[in-house]
Amino acid sequence: MKKYDTIIIGSGPAGLGAAWHLTQYGNAGKILIIEQHAISSGGLRNDCKLNFTFPIGFPAHCWDPMDNAVLAEVNSKLLELTHAWNKHFGIPLPAGIENAVVTKYEARAQRLGVQFIPGQQVHLGTDGGISLINALLKYLKKHNVTIINKFRIEAASIDIKKKTISAPEENLQYKNLILAPGRAGHTFVQEFMHLNGIKYHDNCIDAGIRLETNIEHYSIVNEYYDPKFYFPERVRTFCTNAGAAYVIQEKYGNWYSVNGHAYSKKHKQNNLANFAILKTLDFTEPIASGHDYAESIAATAMLAGGGKPIMQRIGDFRMGKRSTPGGFVNDDLYQTKPTLKACPGDISLVIPAKILRAIWNALKQLDTIVPGVLHPGTIMYWPEIKMYNHTPRFANDSFMLADGVYGVGDGFGTSRGITAAWLSGQKAASHIVSG
Ligand SMILES: Cc1cc2nc3c(=O)[nH]c(=O)nc-3n(C[C@H](O)[C@H](O)[C@H](O)COP(=O)(O)OP(=O)(O)OC[C@H]3O[C@@H](n4cnc5c(N)ncnc54)[C@H](O)[C@@H]3O)c2cc1C
User: Within 6-124, where are the H helices?
Assistant: First the structure.
């Protein structure tokens, strides 16, 4: 039986943040990170835009934006993080947005009852993100962290009473276990909580569409890379990618969710931008699981799209027509070329009315704030669904689930972005360090 002081499952930002904190602040002891892929698979390695402004990426149920103590703590940790990454890995310090730009968009947004949040950001791109991951792993290995890649831990192999994990080659023993499996670990998280009697709810989802257009139709990205607008009806812009930007699909069981990423400025540019516009929904009885609801609407999308996400031109949508393959080869009017091979179709056939209405209202407002985004050639992709909907009943505010077991990052609903995931891992680690 191999013994470790702390075992961390998942090498995304939450797992790495925890390991980093243990090596920086504590008499860390032996640390092991286990990752099912060659390197971490979330946003650190896809686009990697780092948001350093609270509450962007911080879910309110874990990080109360109205609590001044939380605000002060998060701001100081974010500042510490920017300086640490700058010192050790040469990551640029975040740049604010020019005052004139903020005033312009704020004034337009306010008139419509829309909130505009200017954020401090650094965009590393997919290539820059992979370099950061490799630098972080190298640093951690140098500080005696053992990392096992391409190895998947099953929830049933963890015994939280004996504090062991049974693995095929060798059993592992831990004093502390930090679970950080991200959104891809949705089933793992659910099984773990069922098996260990940890109460949770998952009645909230974010669902929406991703827009793809030429940068000239969403020129705000030249001034603010990932603009954050909060519309009425709980709709918001999310995860903007621009310059060398691509729409991608991620597999969840039998269905795909679209997403996006972009390379850094060093990469060949395609002058496209894509971003999500998402609506948050909370369910009450009789729907118990947001996850089940998400799966059912995603299944309808796969049915209509022949197993693929659906894409539709804004021009077709406005005329109440489906998009056809022919509408994607006309370079004259419909000049935005899709970067994802989705199925041309009619999104209004498969999006629940409440979601579509709220998103279309928000898009019309966005088009008033950033004129051009509703160009007839702009492409809408459906579905984009965010699987960070577990809200466990934590034993304390350091994300402890049971004695010596912590659940952090997107998989446990403590974050919705890279920096928040990192800080949630750090929070669990600091509880371990403080004994
Ligand atoms: C395509 C994409 C682009 C994104 N872009 C951005 C962005 O630019 N900026 C931003 O702030 N956020 C972005 N996000 C969101 C961001 O990735 C997440 O908020 C963040 O990565 C969550 O961190 P995490 O550590 O909780 O999970 P993850 O980063 O998902 O890491 C979890 C890790 O655990 C591993 N794992 C899961 N289950 C197991 C298991 N059973 N055994 C072993 N290993 C396991 C996974 O392979 C994964 O590497 C993006 C997300 C995606 C999917």
Answer: 13-25, 68-89, 99-111
